[in-house]
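Pilot study result, target chain (155 residues):
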Amino acid sequence: MEQAERIRVKCGAATGAAGLAVAVAMTVAGGSLARFLPDGPLFHAVAFVGAAVAGAALADGFGRRGRLGALAAIVAAPVVTAVGAVIATLLLVAIFEPSGGWRALSGAVPLGVLAVTDGIGTSPFVAGTWGLSLAGVHMAMRRVRGLPLHPFKPL
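Predicted structure:
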């Protein structure tokens, strides 16, 4: 496996773990839409898969050097979150409504992004879990890329 592929796989695993942490936080202390979330291991599994696929696809946004690298991670974090939420929602709809067709899929896509946005925006616990876990993804990817964990040069 090439270095670029290893980076994508490791970023996918890291963002999958972050997505799982956020999904658990949403079911424990989510926002006003948390009561509509499916509870149980299936919800957490599709959140992991959605976040992992999104993270692997957008791995170039994490772990870069300097201020531009930090800015890239700040931009990549909400994009990975939204893409992961869409993938997880599509998986849930495909599992629960296999005969629903495109109408069921297209109607459900905004709900995943809306649920995550609501959880982050209304629950400090979910927002903290999201921010810290994606900052952890950025730091882990810095290590994978062979960069120091601290972004500043010593005096």
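One observation from the pilot: The chain has one domain: 3-144. A full batch analysis is planned for the follow-on phase.
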